[in-house]
Predict the structure.
Amino acid sequence: LASWDAQYMQKPVERSGSLFAPNFMRYYNGELPDVLPDAIIASTDPAYGGGDYVAMAIGYVYGADVYIHDVVYSKEDKKVTVPECVTKLIANGVTFIQVEGTKSTMTYADEMQKEMKKREYRLRMTTKAASTATSKQDRIFDQAPDIRDNFIFRSSGKRPNEYQKFME
């Protein structure tokens, strides 16, 4: 039941042995290092609303560390989330984004490109289909050590409301 709530109902619960237990994650106080990042990147898992969430993480890369500084996490319609994503890409100066592409979400990247063109903003965008050879749960388990070791998230109390929901 806990797995069903977390994965499909967007209602995660803390439980013993959690894959991303808060005490094993890395955090920062919301202020980025006082040097230029090596890159500013983003990754998006699109959705069209109707209960599924658009999740976009914006990361500032410093060597092997990626500071997740800003996010979009919304179950609103794409007419709301596409402009919100583009606004945050521009505000953060993102130069590269990867958008998960499936048959049903490929047009989301197209909509983002149209919105960026309208705002005269350019970046490198790629789409990548999630592997169908392994389950989503197996892909998460496979990447978990890298996420815990290399990704640094805002500390509790230093997160805007949308970021807090993303972390939950």
